Amino acid sequence: MSLGQQLAPHLPFLRRYGRALTGSQTHGDAYVRATLEAIVAAPDEFPRDVDPRLALYRMFQGIWNSTNLDQGGDEGGGDDAESIARARLARMTPMSRQALLLTAMEGFTPEDTAYLIETDADEVDELVAEALREIENQTRARVLIIEDEPIIAMDIETIVRDLGHEVTGVAVTRDEAVALAMEDRPGLVLADIQLADDSSGIDAVKDILGEFRVPVIFITAFPERLLTGERPEPTFLITKPFQRSTVKAAIAQALFFDETTVPAA
Hints:
The structure is a single chain. The protein has 265 residues and is α/β, with parallel strands linked by helices. The chain folds into 2 domains: 3-136, PhyR, sigma-like (SL) domain (Butyryl-CoA Dehydrogenase, subunit A, domain 3); 139-256, Response regulator (Rossmann fold, 3-Layer(aba) Sandwich), CATH 3.40.50.2300. Helix content is 54%, strand content 9%. The chain has helices at residues 3-7, 11-22, 25-41, 52-67, 80-89, 94-105, 110-117, 121-138, 150-162, 174-183, 201-209, 244-256, and strands spanning 142-146, 166-171, 188-192, 216-220, 236-239. It has a 5-stranded parallel beta sheet with strand order 2-1-3-4-5, with helices on both faces. The longest helix has 18 residues, at 121-138. The protein is globular.
């Protein structure tokens, strides 16, 4: 099997990580492209002594660390949301954010994460704890949940409330989601893709974003369909079935890049 064939199944999830890390589909996907270009340009430098997925993320980390655009490079620097994010980075180091996303969202072990960010497993545990402390002190939001499966909706609602956020409503159809959003504007939307009446959570979100700006996290059992890099796609994505830690990390990152988020008291 060629190297390209080995890496292809992992690219959607690397896009998910890149988008979550940068808060942008455009910027995250650009890092993924740069990673692939680096592999094509110097295939002998691709790590062959570890699992291909781990090696792919290691190459991505090398690109990320070498450009360090997340802290004010020339990637559009004047944008308000990015300015807010850079200000928050002064209180949460980039490495702690990476450790949290790599473990909670991407599912790497502390040992694998240590390899990716070039530290040791004990330090990874400390970095994740640091990131979680910062999150708990940093953001509170009012959340609209769009989910037609009652058990999953209740699970998400419990997680959201336990994190200290307020739930403005739970919608099961596109029309209901839009109506709830217009009635009580949320500061964050968590949306399933397929809804009860065969309507689309994506269409519901498009309708909502047509009225006002709000960060969105999509929830889907088929993430590969929304992580192609070929069209406008979600920046933040949770894969079903999900872990509590995954939802927490995704919410934290979505709010991290949102300039309207109110810091916790």
